[in-house]
Structures are given as C-alpha cells and as structure tokens.
C-alpha cells in the first residue's frame, strides 16, 4: 500500500507542475514557478520515501557466520570500483599525452605505451586486493 502511495505522489510531483505550466499562460515566470514546484515536490517525495524505507528495523544475515561478511563484500566492491575509476582517469590523461608525443616524434611510442600500461596496472592491483578480501570471507 505504501509503495503505491509513494508511486502516485512521485507521479503527481512530476505531472502537476508541468500541467500547471502547459494549461496556463506560458511565460518565463510561470515556467520558473512550475520548475521550482516540480523540483521541491519531487525531492520532498524522494526524502519521504527514503525515510520510510529506512524506518524499518534491519537484521543481520543469518546465513553468514561472521558479521563482517557484508562489510567484506562492500570493501571488495569499493576497491574494485574506485580502482577502475582511477584507472580510467589516469589512462585518459596518459593516453592523450602519449598521442600528442607520438604525433611529434614517432620514436617515443615505446616510452609512451609504458606510461599508459602503468596506469592500467591500477585496476589490476585493485582486483588483486578485492580477491584477497573475498578470500578471507
């Protein structure tokens, strides 16, 4: 029942402000009011739904013997995710610089590829650490 009420409120928080804008005299001031009403009602419903969702008691997983299994899975996911994000940033910058250097002097290709490969190593290190964490669970 609560899920249906939240869904209806979420739908109304989107439809009512834009209906108010399209059914009336269109203008910049009316658009700003409709947008403000949309944003405030949408995030209000979102906040209410979040509070409702987390108001119920949480119980530990009865399957795992230790209480640290969930944290281990979370740590492994964070290590892998953050390592791959860091790899993407480092590889993007290193590859752009390598392409610029190669376009000026083709003899620098080997050195440039080494720096790109070093940036890719970050993901492998993150994956090894996450396997180490999961191996202890």
Describe the structure.
It is flat and about 65 Å long. The protein starts with a helix and ends with a helix. It has 2 domains: 2-53; 69-135, F1F0 ATP synthase subunit C (F1FO ATP Synthase). Helix content is 81%, strand content 0%. The chain is an all-alpha fold and 137 residues long. Helix 3 packs antiparallel against helix 4.
The biggest sheet amounts to: none
Q: What is the element string, with H for helices and E for strands?
A: HHHH
CATH architecture of the largest domain: Up-down Bundle
Assembly status: single chain
The level of helicity is: over 70%
Count of distinct structural domains: 2
CATH structural class of the largest domain: Mainly Alpha
Mean pLDDT: 84
CATH topology grouping of the largest domain? F1FO ATP Synthase
Rg calculated over all Cα atoms: 26 Å
Number of helices: 4
Rounded to the nearest angstrom, the distance between the terminal CA atoms is 38 Å
CATH homologous superfamily descriptor of the largest domain: F1F0 ATP synthase subunit C
* Secondary structural class: mainly alpha
Q: Are there runs of 5+ residues with pLDDT below 50, and where?
A: none
Strand content is under 5%
Number of strands: 0
Net shape: flat
Helix-strand layout with pairing:
Layout: H1 2-23, H2 28-53, H3 69-104, H4 109-135
Summarize the structure.
It contains four helices and no strands. It is mainly alpha-helical and 137 residues long.
Q: Which descriptors apply to this entry?
A:
single chain; 137 residues; mainly alpha; F1FO ATP Synthase; 81% helix; flat
């Amino acid at each position: 029942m609560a899920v249906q009420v939240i869904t209806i409120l979420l739908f109304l928080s989107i439809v009512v402000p834009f209906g108010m804008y399209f059914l009336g005299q269109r203008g910049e001031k009316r658009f700003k009011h409709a947008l403000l009403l949309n944003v405030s009602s949408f995030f209000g419903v979102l906040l209410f739904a979040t509070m409702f969702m987390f108001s119920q008691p949480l119980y530990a997983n009865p399957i795992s013997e230790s209480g640290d299994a969930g944290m281990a899975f979370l740590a492994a996911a964070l290590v892998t995710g953050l390592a791959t994000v860091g790899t993407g940033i480092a590889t993007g910058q290193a590859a752009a610089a390598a392409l610029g250097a190669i376009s000026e002097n083709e003899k620098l290709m080997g050195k440039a590829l080494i720096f790109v490969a070093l940036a890719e190593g970050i993901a492998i290190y993150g994956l090894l650490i996450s396997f180490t964490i999961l191996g202890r669970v």
